[in-house]
Task: structure prediction
Amino acid sequence: MSLYVIGDLHLSLGEDKPMDVFAGWNDYVSRLAENWRSLVTDDDTVVVAGDISWAMKLEDTYTDFKFIDDLPGKKLFLKGNHDYWWATKSKMDKYLAEKELSTISILFNNAYVCGDFAVCGTRGWFLENDTPEDIKVLNREVGRLKMSIDAAVKTGKEPVVFLHYPPYYRGVECPEIMDVLIEYGIKKCYYGHIHGKGGFRLAYEGEYKGVDFRLISGDRIGFMPVLVR
Result:
């Protein structure tokens, strides 16, 4: 049983939002499916770290979700900045059950045990503007991250954090998020959100303040899920 991660699928199978116009995204849906099936088995788990579907409403996600559900393994969804369809966990759980999307679960203020690891995380945030609304969002994400890590710690397994936003980017850190990772002694953190060669050059991968960071947005990793363990 292995644990994998991939972010930023930006699926639009039920929407008119093609991603193939961007460099590195040509034929990405079929590439993703082929890569996924060559690597992941039904005994494995894949964290999908945000920006999953371009659908605006939960009820419009079915085509994208069904595509993911049909791929091997269990999938754990966390929120990205473009996941406008995101709702309360209870509403999303109900929708998944009604649509019989049985391989998908929601990571939202909770944690899941996968072998020796406990999967935890949240969307995250990067404070670029000190507006009251931005500060409110950041504080809310810090609280959700703590809640998720606390749930992971209770399992007795090693917490591994998955975020959508990078906690450290362009040589600048989000101290509020970094402080949580350091406080809990997190060793591994995977994040997405960053795209394109210019963004990749500015992203940080490797150890920073005791945390090993890895960028796992789809175009960064060639739409091949990354093995966590």
